[in-house]
Amino acid sequence: MFKNKGDRLESLIQYVYQELSKFSNKDIKVENKYDIVGKSGTTHNIDVYYQFELNGIVHRVIFECKNWKSKVSKDKVLILKAIIDDIPNSVGIMVAPKGYQSGAKTFAEHHDIELISGSEQSLLAIVAQSKLKVVLPDETVIGEPFYCLMEKANDGKVTGTYIRNGDASGESFLILCFSKREAEEIETNLSSVVRGIDKQHLSILCDYSDNSGLKLAIKQFMSNEVLGVESNLIKDFFL
Fold it and tell me: In the list 110, 116, 177, 227, which could disulfide-bond 183, CB 3.0-4.6 Å?
């Protein structure tokens, strides 16, 4: 169990980068609440710490998470700037669902600090794409075993957000279909596109469901009936 909202946000971001590291040939470290000593001799406790080595140089990404009810002020971005200045070869990313005050944005932009805001689910997609190439299903992926709907950007590429549909009770599910045609039949708007889900993507999707609370459902073949299914059952039968 997460002690508070901040712990949950940090764990979600850590999870994204751990999953992405599985598709990289780099030696990657992803840690939550990580202590590191800076050039000044000061020990910094980092919310989420990401490290990889390239061409003999260690690169570091310092995440500062602010899961607050209000917008983050410039002072907090100043603190992050001081930390990354003290840690060699590091860049900073601040994550705050409620956003930032105008002064914070101006200061961060000038010092190349990335500011991310939005819901937890959108944060997963945005953070995932901010520094790494994300393994997302494109039009060439064959749905073995499923097809689903994903959000697409103006350029036609998927954004990383899975589109959910509500049932009669008002609950919202990501619906998995056994055929591309059936997935196309539930496509409701121009911002969605059908994508195949193979076993690799399905494994990531199930883990995403476990960590973010995304509910999954399977549309029965040649039927309008949709059945909510736990991720562990999907893993047992399809992975």
Answer: 177
pTM (2 d.p.): 0.52
The predicted-structure confidence for 88-128, as pLDDT tens digits, reads as follows: 989 999 988 888 999 999 999 999 898 888 766 665 555 55
Residues 153-206 pLDDT 10s: 777 777 767 787 765 566 788 889 999 988 888 776 667 888 898 887 788 778
Residue 158, in any domain of the structure: yes
State the residue range of the domain holding 163: 145-238
| Unique residue bearing structure tokens 């899961």 | 67
Asked whether residue 137 is domain-assigned, the answer is no
239: three-class secondary structure by DSSP = coil
Domain check: are 166 and 73 in the same one?
Answer: no
Tokens, residue 119:
């819901």
Cα separation of 193 and 137, whole Å? Answer: 11
Backbone torsions φ then ψ of 110, nearest 5 degrees:
-65, -35
How many secondary structure helices (H) and strands (E) does the chain include?
7, 12
Residue 63: closest CA among 76, 54, 82, 50: 50
